[in-house]
Amino acid sequence: MSQTAERIETLLKERRTYQPPAAFKRTAHVRSKKPYQEASRDRLKFWAARAKELEWFKPWKKVLEWNPPHAKWFVGGKLNASVNCLDRHLKNGRRNKVALIWEGEPGDRRTLSYWDLHREVCRFANVLRDLGVKKGDRVAIYMPMIPEVVVAMLACARIGAPHSVVFGGFSAESLKDRINDAEATVLITADKGYRRGQVVPLKRNADEALKETPTIRHVVVVARDGKGSEAAGIEMQPGRDHWYHELMSRASPDAKPAVMDAEDLLFILYTSGTTGKPKGIVHTTGGYLTHVTATTKWVFDLKDDDVFWCTADVGWVTGHSYIVYGPLSLGATVVMYEGAPDWPDKDRFWEIVERYGVTVFYTAPTAIRAFMKWGPEYPARHDLSSLRLLGTVGEPINPEAWIWYHQHIGGKRCPIVDTWWQTETGGIMITPLPGVTRTKPGSATLPFPGIEAALLDGDGNEIKVGGGFLAITSPWPGMLRTIYKDDQRYRDTYWGRWPGKYFTGDGAKRDRDGYFWILGRVDDVLNVAGHRIGTMEVESALVSHPAVAEAAVVGKPHELKGQALVAFVILRAGVSNRPELADELKQHVATKIGAIARPDDIIFTADLPKTRSGKIMRRLLKDIAAGRALGDVTTLADPAVVQALKEKYEEQES
Ligand code: WT7
Ligand 1 center to residue 318 CA distance, Å? Predict the structure, then answer.
């Protein structure tokens, strides 16, 4: 039985359901199914009403202009995202409200009010303008999880310079490729960050990347531990590199926001696809902000006295949408934590929840599975009674993990929102509304009002009940507008399969209640610990090593990470398999891409199973990696190769 079929089997057996608790429902923003009805009656009117909750310099003329596959939302409207996230809260009674509660891994703490954040953002907007950054110029950001990363993003938004945030765990090489693809002129980084008690040498990595980034004119470096505590050994290149605190000390706290068209770029965010080259996902201003603001308000039910903690890194879309733009646009109080969940001990998250009275907590199934493994005694050490709502994102959550989360973190009183979405969708797409939706562990339930999703077969026929490809059948405000500098790839990847309908790359199942159960990727993209990794990217990293002739990378089920990478490697002629070579290759991938892409297993082989036309049969490699019985091998050029590989893998595993 294939992995997908197995999952469908288990999910079909999942019959537990949870009604929204009465106490929750009483105060929820959404208490009835009315928004679903309104949106299905008139989707554009529904989204226009959501957009009206933002502050616009100039109203739009038309809600949607749809020339498949290109959409324009709120045509002619003018706004600025930083004004929506900051300035409007200075006038509505929130100016001294805490915007950010930050905690560093070593235990240092800072809070910034909306007014504080506004001043910092304006100062940094002036700094960027003084460095010559103009509207439309791209700015790369490579930073730890410190308040300055939020300042940097919002300052870019203020002056209309699209930001490209590169996750601080990515390697110098990944940073270089992203800077060069975006042709960024400025890089914002930090001397260091902290992770599991170790120093992450961001500036040193950046310097490695900067050797081959001809478009970069200036580098701004934040001293993570403040002025006077700059990391030792940092080299500052005169004329190019500047300390953040020095530039900021001279900058004015007033900066006029750029008037942005609804369709002007807000940011580019790179994500993995099926080829070796990451895709620069393009998001614009008006539609994106409308989508993330509406979903933050309704899915997380955020009110003024909530304390919202999304544990993602700002380097991923989850951080963009649900640490920065969504919650700040709503004027919420946001918790931000720099480090690992098990540092100094495995109760760090629960200590933070207790210390700040977190009310809404949003994390990934991979983290929940780790909490389960560590045991319920860690959350039990803390008072978690402030929590009233829990969320998950990034990968399918297995019902057992859902139930554990519900019981040990949520004290059986908190609804759980399992939110399905992607870097490309900008915001949450399929999700419960916590005061309305009956939830089922393992199901993301139903499309958000105004979102139209369907399961299709290969020919585009709709499957009402059963399994199929997950598609979004009409444009939505937060959708990606294109792939940066590669519109053809945008057309091919997302819209090539069924005209006018968006292909998500995910397989899913729909039950008799119309609930969606996401099964995972159907292409050559893996989901490792909630992060997308293209198998091709890892393969090209491997073959760039002098010892490797050919490589094929597949996923295997992993208890904590969901999936783990297994690499099948053919060595070059004349290279012998030294004992330390496997570790060297793993490290090589980590250096090329980042630690998240490090394969768990490397299998050396003399041959790979190929079809007669020379295509690697990944399906068989997946079966081998998962230890499953081999499927159909009749199209193989040489069936003996597979049997040999299987034996070898089993021997290595035992
Ligand atoms: C892929 C998108 C969107 C934020 C984090 C990941 C998987 C995401 C769920 C969920 C099952 C999920 C899908 C999707 N995914 N959320 N609730 N249930 N699968 O963003 O890196 O763009 O990855 O993550 O496979 O396509 P991303």
Answer: 10
